[in-house]
Design goal:
alpha+beta; about 30% helix; globular; six-stranded mixed β-sheet
C-alpha cells in the first residue's frame, strides 16, 4: 500500500461522503483498509442528492478520454448493482432527448451519429413512437425526432450512498457525520499525519482523500494547495405526484425531467440555472421549472412543488475531474469532479487501487490532480 512516501498507511480519512467519497471509502474498506468517513452533514445529502443523477456518456464527447472514462463509469454502475444489489437506487431505464430548435436538434443528431459510430447504442424515434412505446404522458409532436439511449440510467444518489456507507461500516469503516474537517496535519517531511475535526477531535491517519465536492478548494487549502474550481450553481426542484407519469430521464425542450421514486419527480434546466445570478429566489426558480415541465408532461400540472435547492457543482476550472495523488503532499489524494453520479463508482475503485497498490490507471491519465501543481 502506498501513500506516496513508500510506507503502508494504517488509516485513511475520506473527507466528504457524497457519491465519490462513499465509493472510495467502500472500495478501500473492502480491501481491508481502516477507513474513517467524515462528513460535515449527513452522507449523500449534499450535491449528490441535488443533482440530475443521470448515468451517461452521450453528453461527454468533449474529449475522447473523458468519454471513455464515462463509458467505464456506466459499466461500473452495472457491476456495482450486481455487487451490492440494485435496491432502490439503480434505475437502468434509458434516456430520451429532443429539442424544439432546429439548430439544437441538428447538433443532437450529429452527436448521435458520432456515438453510433463508436458503438454506443442509440435509436432515433418520432414523437408518436415515444408516446406509443415508452412515455404515453409526454406531449411531443408526432414528427419530432427523439433520441433514445437505452443503456443510460438514473440513480437515486442518496440511497446509493446509504448502501455504500452501510457496507463500508460493516467492513470495519468508521463514520463521523455532522462534523467538518478543520485542518490536515502534516509532518516535518510534508506527509499527512492527521485530521482535526470541528468537534475538537483529531484523527491520526496516514492518508486523506479530499472528496469534499464544492468545498474541495477549502480542504485542499489545508495542505497549502490551490485547487481552482469553477462557480457553477444549479437549481433542482422536486415535485410530489400521486403517480409519477414518466418512466425514465429525459432532456426535453427547456427542462430536464426524471422520476425520483414512486411519488416524486426531479426537474432541472440550464436555462433556469442562468437566472440564479439575477437574484431570482428559489421559489421563483421552482415555478419556472414547473411551468416548463408541464408543457412537456401535462399531467405534472397537478403535481406539487415540495423542495428546491441551489447546489454548487464541484467542477475543476478546466471542466474535468481532479483525481489521484498530489506528489508534493505524500498521503493526500483528490476525488473532485462534476458528473459524480456517473463517475463516482469507477473513480472510487481506481483511486482505492492507487492508494493501496500505487496503481495509476490509464483511464485517469488526463485527469490527475497533479496537473494543477503550483
Amino acid at each position: 500500500m502506498s501513500t506516496g512516501s513508500g510506507e503502508r498507511p494504517k488509516r485513511v480519512a475520506v473527507i466528504g461522503v457524497g457519491v465519490l467519497g462513499a465509493s472510495t471509502g467502500w472500495n478501500l474498506a473492502r480491501r481491508g483498509v481502516r477507513v474513517v468517513l467524515v462528513d460535515a452533514g449527513r452522507p449523500g445529502e449534499g450535491v449528490t442528492d441535488w443533482s440530475f443523477s443521470w448515468v451517461n456518456a452521450s453528453n461527454k464527447t468533449v474529449s475522447r478520454a473523458y468519454y471513455e472514462l464515462n463509458i467505464a463509469g456506466m459499466a461500473e454502475h452495472r457491476a456495482l448493482a450486481a455487487a451490492v444489489g440494485p435496491g432502490a437506487w439503480w434505475h437502468p431505464s434509458g434516456h430520451l432527448r429532443w429539442a424544439d430548435d432546429p439548430d439544437a436538434q441538428a447538433a443532437h443528431l450529429r452527436t448521435a451519429e458520432l456515438l453510433a459510430d463508436r458503438g454506443y447504442r442509440v435509436e432515433t424515434l418520432t414523437g408518436a413512437d415515444v408516446r406509443r412505446r415508452l412515455e404515453p404522458a409526454v406531449d411531443v409532436p408526432d414528427g419530432t425526432p427523439v433520441l433514445h439511449y437505452p443503456d443510460e440510467a438514473w440513480v437515486h444518489g442518496r440511497r446509493l450512498v446509504g448502501s455504500l456507507v452501510e457496507e463500508a461500516v460493516a467492513s470495519g469503516a468508521e463514520l463521523r457525520r455532522d462534523t467538518a474537517a478543520d485542518a490536515i496535519v502534516t509532518g516535518a517531511d510534508g506527509s499527512v499525519r492527521g485530521v482535526h475535526l470541528a468537534d475538537g477531535s483529531r484523527l491520526d491517519v496516514d492518508a486523506v482523500v479530499n472528496a469534499a465536492g464544492p468545498h474541495a478548494t477549502r480542504v485542499a487549502g489545508f495542505v497549502a494547495r490551490d485547487l481552482p474550481m469553477r462557480r457553477e450553481p444549479g437549481a433542482v426542484t422536486r415535485l410530489h405526484c400521486d403517480r409519477v407519469p414518466v418512466h425514465r430521464a429525459m432532456h426535453a425542450p427547456h427542462v430536464e425531467i426524471r422520476p425520483d421514486g414512486d411519488t416524486s419527480v426531479v426537474l432541472h434546466s440550464r436555462e433556469t440555472d442562468a437566472l440564479i445570478d439575477s437574484g431570482a429566489a428559489p421559489a421563483d426558480l421552482a415555478r419556472h421549472l414547473h411551468t416548463a415541465a408541464r408543457q412537456v408532461v401535462p399531467a405534472l400540472g397537478a403535481a406539487r412543488i415540495t423542495r428546491t435547492r441551489i447546489a454548487h457543482r464541484p467542477v475543476p476550472v478546466d471542466g474535468f475531474p481532479s483525481v489521484g495523488a498530489v506528489p508534493d503532499v505524500p498521503g493526500y489524494y483528490e476525488a473532485v469532479t462534476h458528473s459524480g453520479i456517473t463517475l463516482g463508482p469507477v473513480v472510487g475503485r481506481l483511486l482505492a487501487a492507487e492508494i493501496v497498490d500505487g496503481e495509476r490507471h490509464v483511464l485517469l491519465k488526463d485527469f490527475r490532480a497533479e496537473r494543477f501543481a503550483e
